[in-house]
Amino acid sequence: MESVFAILVGLFFAAGIYLMLSRHIIRILLGVSLFGNAVNLLIFTNGRLMREIPPVIAEGLDVPAGAVANPLPQALILTAIVISFSFFAFLLVLAYRAYQEIGTDDTDGMRIAEPADDGLPPMGY
Amino acid sequence: MIAAPVTAADWLVVAPVLVPIVCGAILLMIRHNVRWHALVAVAALLAMAAANVALLTRVLGEGPVSMTMGSWLPPFGISFTVDALGAMFSLTASFVALACCAYSVLDIDVTGRRYGFYPFLLLMMAGVSGAFLTGDMFNLYVWFEVFLISSFGLLILGSEKPQIDGATKYAILNLVGTTLFLIATGYLYGTFGTLNMADLAARVGQADAAAPLTTLASLFLLAFCMKAAAFPVNFWLPASYHTPPVITGALFGGLLTKVGIYALLRTMLTIFAVERAELAGVIGWIAAATMLVGALGALAQSDIRRISGFLVISGVGVMLAGIALGTERGLSGTIFYAVHSMVSLSALYLLGGLMRQRGGSFSLHSLSGLYTASPFLTLLAMVISLAVAGLPPGSGLWPKVMLVKAALDGGAWPLAMAVLLSGFLATIALGRVFILAFWRTDTVAAGGRPADAPAQAAASRLGVATITLLALAMVGMGVMPEPFVRAATAAASGLIDTSAYVQAVFPPGGGQ
Fold first, then answer.
1. Closest residue of B to A102, CA-based?
2. Which among B271, B276, B80 has a CA at the least distance from the CA of B189?
3. Torsion on CA atoms B218, A43, B82, B401, rounded to nearest 10
4. Which neighbouring-strand residues pair with B363?
5. Do A102 and B165 touch (CB under 8 A)?
6. CB contact under 8 A, B189 and A114
7. Among A14, B129, B168, B397, which one is least packed by beta carbons within 10 Å?
8. Nearest CA-CA distance, residue A64 and chain B, Å
């Protein structure tokens, strides 16, 4: 089960990185989003997969009786999902503003902060 | 489960995070009463600095302190664990933020306040302190995100075209960097089954022999190098740090890259000490390349904010050198240099702001005659330039001496050469700023200086006072380095020998 998930995570990463190598901001953002989801799956798989055994401790016991599903990765993923979702929302707005202001979403054209003709400092005194 | 409530003294451990979060939330509630913003922010940062002083005193006296939240015993509850390293960084960060905040009182206009400069500032400081004080890897990731999202807010405040452009690159690359950090954290959990740093430090020897620990350490190295702007993943920094108001640049340049260095120290020494030794060669080359790329980049710029940005990168390389060496002297050099770098690079950015106020420009092409216009500012500029370049009487000298000595002791003479060469190049870059902006008297700016409005004159006096404070701190560190060296050595030995750190979280005999 874990190995199937590992391959799936690898495919997610490959697709995310491929998109992030693009010159266009919107593709990069979609890549970042895929990348984030790949990480969530990765953490989930790293917690080891165990089906249909809820991590509930029976009455009168201090520890669960047998092996149970690992609840911790879900807490980690939930936090990561919330964070990556809010970042993604922010980045989408930022990219849209950048498109409005600069008029392009091609990173090669985004040279406002670092102009290509930004000359050398004075050479003499 | 822990039955007894947390003692009052232990609340000190979280105070440097609690104070800015609560005050930031209060500022968000009163965001329309902009008159109160600066006052609350200064008070919050003062309280934070006081808490950090108390915390550092306690940690230096008693060793690492830990507090675990939510009545769950570690490693199940999330611990805040403070050792000398975290307390030193946290104290310096709050001192620098306080100085920057004082500078901003008359520098940030009503629009900036209405859009939330001060809440962002306080929440960013909460994230930075949280990263320095936490004792849990996943919690560290969360604090990274807290200060990142606040820094996005600060970076685009004002929404000028260059800001939007710079922020897009900053935001995407930093998000990718923290995602890499999260990947590494996921594998760390999969390998060890725990994310508590002290628990990890205690279990490093027990990992499955087949576990790919060197790969994992390399992933952490890449993620934190991205955050610290080390070569070859440094290009986002000079693309963005010069675009926002100088005050934001000062905060970012001073504090944020050091969080990356702190995280590297923590993971590479506390958890991956063996793997760090394997990767030492790679880290050494990264360090040398970062130093030289930063210094050469600074030489090629004409905007003083961009020169500062490249000098930040050069400093990151110097700090990486100590991590590559891994000896106690090398690490204490890195820690001392990080403290120096937080203070001096913030001061360098703020100095740029004052030069712009007096000279009307950030460009070396048009700045001139500042020596005539303001002799005292010239003195400050000289002190700051000497400190950043690592010359006496500035604070940069002693950590560099320690690093060069450690490199020569370890036989790593290329690294020692790189430290010296990058210091030499930084001296040339800053010396040129000094000659062109302060000594040159011929060009337009001498006559074209903007008339000082009364408000601007007041802002300028406050700015000079702030930078004087920072310059005094630098000269103090340069002239009386012993207490700083001692604290840095204590921090470094705590990184190498983790037993005190582990015992703070897991007291012998079960404790609590």
1. B161
2. B271
3. 10
4. B303
5. yes
6. no
7. A14
8. 16
- Phi (first) and psi of residue B2, to 5 degrees: -90, 125
- Rounded Cα gap, residues B208 and B273, in angstroms: 16
Alpha-carbon distance B305 to nearest alpha carbon in chain A (angstroms): 12
Axis-axis angle for helices B34-62, B15-29 (nearest 10) = 170
- Joined tokens for residue B123: 């929440």
**Could you tell me the maximum CA-CA distance found in chain B, to the nearest angstrom?**
75
Residue B445 has pLDDT above 60, yes or no: no
3-state secondary structure of B303: strand
pTM of the predicted model, to two decimals?
0.93
Q: Which of B315, B363, B370, B361 is nearest to B338 (CA)?
A: B315
| B161, B182, B440: residue with CB nearest A39 | B182
* pLDDT, tens only, B105-146: 877 777 788 888 999 999 999 999 999 999 999 999 999 999
* Residues of A with Cβ-Cβ distance to B240 under 8 angstroms: 113
Q: List all residues of chain B from 341 to 370 with a beta carbon under 8 Å from chain A.
A: 364-365
Cα A13 from Cα B299, distance rounded (Å): 39
Cα B498 from Cα B219, distance rounded (Å): 22
Residue B79 has φ and ψ, to the nearest 5°, of: -100, 145
**With bands split at pLDDT 50, 70 and 90, how would you rate the model's confidence at B510?**
low
Closest CA in chain B for residue A87: B149
Tens digits of pLDDT across chain A (125 residues): 789 999 999 999 999 999 999 999 999 999 999 999 999 999 999 888 877 777 788 888 888 877 788 888 888 999 999 999 999 999 999 999 999 988 888 888 888 888 877 778 887 77
B20 touches B49 (CB < 8 A): no
Side-chain-side CA neighbours of residue B176 (13 Å): 21
pLDDT digits (tens, 9 = 90+) for B257-294: 999 999 999 999 999 988 999 999 999 999 999 999 99
Of A35, A43, A98, the CB nearest to B189: A43
Contact B338, B301 (CB under 8 A): no
pLDDT over 70 at B83, yes or no: yes
Contacts of B232 (CB under 8 A, 6+ apart): B289
DSSP of B327-359: SHHHHHHHHHHHHHHHHHHHHHHHHHHHHHHHH
DSSP for A9-64, written as a single string: HHHHHHHHHHHHTSSBHHHHHHHHHHHHHHHHHHHHHHT----S----PPTT-SS-
Residue with tokens 């104290």: B91
Cβ-Cβ contacts under 8 Å, B171 against chain A: 87, 90-91, 94
List C-alpha distances in Å: B303 to B108, B294, B361, B426. 21, 15, 9, 15
How many residues are listed for chain B in this entry?
Answer: 512
- Interfacial B residues in 276-315 facing A (CB < 8 Å): 300-303
Determine contact, residues B493/B63, Cβ cutoff 8 Å.
no
> Under an 8 A CB cutoff, do A112 and B165 touch?
yes
Nearest-CA distance A11 → chain B (Å): 15
